[in-house]
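Hi L.,

As promised, CpaF family protein:
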Amino acid sequence: MSDMTDAIVWPHRELAIQEDESRLELKAELHQFVIERLEDDGLMYEMERQELQGYVYDYARIYFKQLQGTHFPQDMNALVNELLDEIVGFGPLQNLLDDPDVDDILINGPKLIYVERQGQLTKVPFRFMNDQHVLRVIRRMIAPFGRRIDEANPMVDARLPNGSRINAVIPPLAIDGPCLSVRKFKAESIDIDTLLQNGAMHQLLMKCARSRCNILISGSTGSGKTTLLNVLSQYINSGERVVTIEDAAELQLRNGHVVRLETRPPNSEGQGEVTSRDLLKNALRMRPDRIILGESRGGEVLDMLQAMNTGHQGSMSTLHANSPQDALLRLEMMVTMTGFSSSEVLVKQMVATALDLVIQVARLPSGRRVITHIVEIQDVADEQIRTQVLYAYQPTSEDFRLVDSMSAALREKTGGERE
């Protein structure tokens, strides 16, 4: 094969232009031609991307020479890159997966691809050839995990080897074609100053995390709940044993003694499911100092609250809610939905004695993620959970203000008044 590919400068494909139907057809035919040649030569499953570059480039030259004589397209290098994405990567998504500035990738069918950068969603000029092309990429993503997606199993969750989390839904549930959502894993360390700009608030949260306060982080999708959980975890003493429970492992705890557990969905026969509640019950037998539950969403809430009330102080979790008050109501509702037979007041008492703080996070219209409230949970009075807002975000000045001082109980737990 030719050595000329050593000198190729592979362009950044973010500059790709919108493809017309004729170019998509050309790519499909070229892809089939190259695949057949690779299989005939026994190279399809033997080489990594870098090794295949030269072969794919030469096969593409042969294809165009047969089709158009000596005329080659000006974007030959880009075509070869896209072919390599199809052969060893994830097609049109590969460039977006490799882009460090992209946080989320959302596929709403073959011709509608959106990404989130710095909290803002934008449409990108990439596209798939058709629904089958999207489905082929989805199946390639989930194949290493033994998952399947078809009409009998039209939804699937999985985690890529790099930690990115994916969710796919296909027809008949997805009316307009296969849909894919990718939440990318950020491997870089998290700088607390990017999230906490207020020094006094930083001091409070640092003290609460170190002092083993039980903390619930509330917010909407993409508001920064997991990011804040990662930030707070860096203040956990390295001598403490921490067990994490997640649906898809995203936490990046810096504590040296961490046991990571991940749920498992049922197989194609509906067997083998391991839920968060299963893992939480098992975690209690693993001698944890703290338990970190990635998200509270069902029956595991009851076990988590009981763990917080029985010696596993410093435990943390996240929950989808629009305000601290909504978060508490959701907790109460999820406890009652487990079949826990008790009075409403006792459920409130369980929540109030388990939690010390609720931290509300939000994503602003500008894309910036901020902590909007820090609320202390006190006790139950007049059949209601009493709370006290310690900090509140001021949208007009984009600053935080002290609303009230913490209670004597929390001040004693954290070792004194805030600085």
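Residues 34 and 59 are 6 Å apart (CA to CA).

Thanks again for sending the construct details.

K.
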